[in-house]
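hiii, so i know i said id send this last week but things got crazy w the move. better late than never?? heres the sequnce for the chain we talked about at the cafe, plus the structure i predicted for it. fair warning i was half asleep when i ran it
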Amino acid sequence: MAVKNIMIVGVGGQGTLLTSRILGGLTIAGGYDVKLSEVHGMAQRGGSVNSTKMGVRCTGAGGFIDITQNAKKIVFLGTFTASGAKYEFKDGKLNILQEGKIRKMVRNVAQLSFNGPMARKKGQEVMIVTERAVFELCKEGVKLIEIAPGIDLHTQILDMMDFKPIISEELREMDASLFIPNGPFGLQLKEK
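okay and structure toks below
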């Protein structure tokens, strides 16, 4: 069997923990090598990412740049917004009780740590997975391919982005079982 590696990189807070648990567990069970790091925002200009600076805080890139430049497949994970977002899982749907104060889907990142156009030229497969939407980097730019059940495409995704993504003609809904507390994935929202 050929070795396959999927790189998982997180974007801030509770979303990283939740999404990493979901995808990390699935990929490990499938025999994949999982790596984790942090990112702070994705930009319109082809999916570039900032992993080193958020506001005035500069965390440093660590091994992020080395890992992302050499991975064949990269999955960035995290919440759609940062700082104060609150969620509820009910009846197989995601309900956003409070939006985060910081938008991550921005027109330009504050500092470039991952170059989306370069990744496309190199043939890297890149996905961005949040609690409410899944995007992929394609030759035309950032494409929305999935939305969570219970999420409104316009008010809870498109209106919360500083750029308009390409919307897949085959836009689909995420698996509802991801949003069932104590469901098949055993997920729990924990209060701070």
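btw The first strand starts at residue 5 and ends at 11. thought thatd interest u
miss u guys!!
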